[in-house]
Design brief:
Order of helices and strands: HHHEHEEHHE
Transmembrane segments: 20-39, 45-66, 78-101, 121-140
Main location: membrane
Organism: Subtercola boreus
Number of helices: 6
Largest sheet: 4 strands, antiparallel
Radius of gyration: 22 Å
Structural class: alpha+beta
Number of domains: 2
Membrane topology: Multi-pass membrane protein
Protein name: Na+/H+ antiporter subunit E
Shape: globular
Number of strands: 4
């Protein structure tokens, strides 16, 4: 090999990838250890040792692909994300409570499929969690291949109500991407090219009888 010929990993890409892999696995590992110690309510050497042992067993037996972190965090967008989420939770809680006590109320619900923009497992999961936190909607399934959320929602009188529900989910995903999404997610968001086309128009309305 000549002196001017580049060597693999000479630009630091290899070490950076190795550090990223180690970090992506270390964070969940430490989280499991801390969770174990919190469950026991003890921060002792014995709790630490058993936590490390348990986290090692879980990591080996229930191995999952490493979660890719975006490496970016927008504080202002994150505050907006939390504020809107809290507002949605309060508003939806009042709406569901009113539906429960409203005279002659006829329950109606629907199962809808919402294709997301992101390809990130983490953003998909957090979007599903945010949607599930808002009363009146439950995440039934996440199709990872098509990045599609399947939701059960309340108070859907007709098919005309479905687009507004989909826009609400996509708006939550958008706020999440702007706060912690990767550069790839931001680019997809700007292009507005949802990747989950399969089942995007699937709507199954059912009476709650």
């Amino acid at each position: 090999m000549s002196a001017g010929e580049a060597r693999p990993g000479s630009n630091g890409t290899g070490p950076r990838m190795l550090r990223a892999r180690v970090l992506s696995g270390l964070i969940p590992f430490v989280g499991l250890v801390l969770l174990w110690m919190l469950l026991w309510g003890q921060f002792t050497w014995l709790a630490l040792a058993t936590g490390v042992l348990l986290a090692s067993l879980v990591s080996i037996v229930f191995y999952l692909p490493a979660v890719r972190l975006s490496g970016r965090f927008d504080l202002v967008r994150a505050v907006v994300l939390l504020a809107v989420l809290l507002f949605d939770i309060v508003r939806a809680s009042l709406q569901v409570a009113w539906s429960a006590i409203r005279p002659r109320y006829t329950p109606s619900n629907a199962i809808i499929a919402v294709p997301l923009v992101t390809r990130s497992d983490l953003i998909m999961t957090f979007t599903a969690v945010m949607v599930g936190l808002v009363p009146g909607s439950i995440v039934l399934d996440i199709d990872r291949d098509s990045a599609t959320l399947h939701l059960h929602t309340l108070n859907v009188a007709s098919v005309d109500d479905v687009p507004a529900l989909k826009r609400a989910v996509l708006a939550a995903e958008r706020r999440l991407i702007l706060a912690v999404g990767s550069a790839d997610d931001l680019a997809r968001l700007r292009k507005q090219e949802p990747i989950g086309q399969t089942g995007s128009n699937q709507t199954d309305e059912r009476s709650a009888g």
